[in-house]
Amino acid sequence: MLRSPRPRRPVADLPPAAGAPTGQGLARSIRLFRLFLREQTEPDLFYSGLAADAADQLAGYTELAGRTVVDVGGGAGHFTAAFRSRGADCYLFEPDQAELLSRGSTPAGAIVADGYWLPVADGSADICFSSNVLEHVADPAGLIEEMIRATKPGGVIYLSFTNWYSPWGGHEMSPWHLLGAGFAARRYLRRYGREPKHALGRNLFRVHVGPILRLMRGRADIELLDALPRYYPRWCKVVLWVPVLRELATWNLLLIVRRTT
Ligand SMILES: C[S@@+](CC[C@H](N)C(=O)[O-])C[C@H]1O[C@@H](n2cnc3c(N)ncnc32)[C@H](O)[C@@H]1O
Asked: Sign (positive/negative) of CA torsion 43, 45, 48, 51?
C-alpha cells in the first residue's frame, strides 16, 4: 500500500552518485537500507543508487573502463547506465519489453533477448552481469550456463539473486511467503485487491543459497572469487558457512566468478 508522502532527507544523504567509490562496511549497508525504503516512491533514485553500488562492487574485482559488459535481464537499464558511466561498453539484454519501457523509453542499444539464449558469440564478454534475475527463471542452472558461455576465459561474472527463504524472497508478498507461497498470494490479493506481480512457478522460483554455491563450486571451468551477502558488510560473509542460517539470513547472494577455461 502506498503511503502519503512524508518529508524526506535530501538526496545528498543517500548513496553517492555513479562514479563515486563506496566502501563495503556498515555505513554502505545503512545507505542501501535507507534507499530500499524509497524503492516504491522513487524507483529511479533507488535503482540508480543500487546500480552505482553494484558497479563499485564489481570494480573491486575487475577494470570496467573499456570492457565489454553483458547485462542479462537488465530491466529498465539502470545498471547498464552505471557501467557506461564508468567507461564500459555495456549491452543490455532483456526479454520483457514492458520492463525496457518502464522509464518511458527504451534504453539506448537495448536488445530484446532471453538470458537463456544470449545473441552473442562464445566468450565475447569481459564481464557478464546479472542482478536479481536468477530467481525469476525456471532453470537457474541454464541461465548460469549461458552466462559462462558468453564470458571470455579470464572474464568475470557478477551473479546476484534473492534466495527464496530470504525475508524478501517472496518479493511484494514478503515475508508471508515464509508461511507458504499460496497463503502469501491469497493474503496479498485480500489486502491490496489485486494479484501480486509475481507468482511462484510463473515468474518467481525458489532458488536456494546452498545448491547454487555447490553448483558453482562443482564446475571446473570457473573459479569462485567471492561469495557474500550482497547488501551486508563484507564480514557478514561468515553467514554463508552455516547451512540453514544462510538460507534465512543472506537476503541476497552475490557471487563473483572468473571463467578459467
Ligand atoms: C527484478 S528484475 C531485475 C532487473 C535488474 N537486473 C535489476 O537488478 O534491477 C528481473 C528481471 O529479469 C528479467 N528476466 C526474467 N526472465 C528472464 C530471462 N529468461 N532472461 C533474462 N532476463 C529475464 C525480467 O524481465 C526482469 O527485467
From this structure: negative
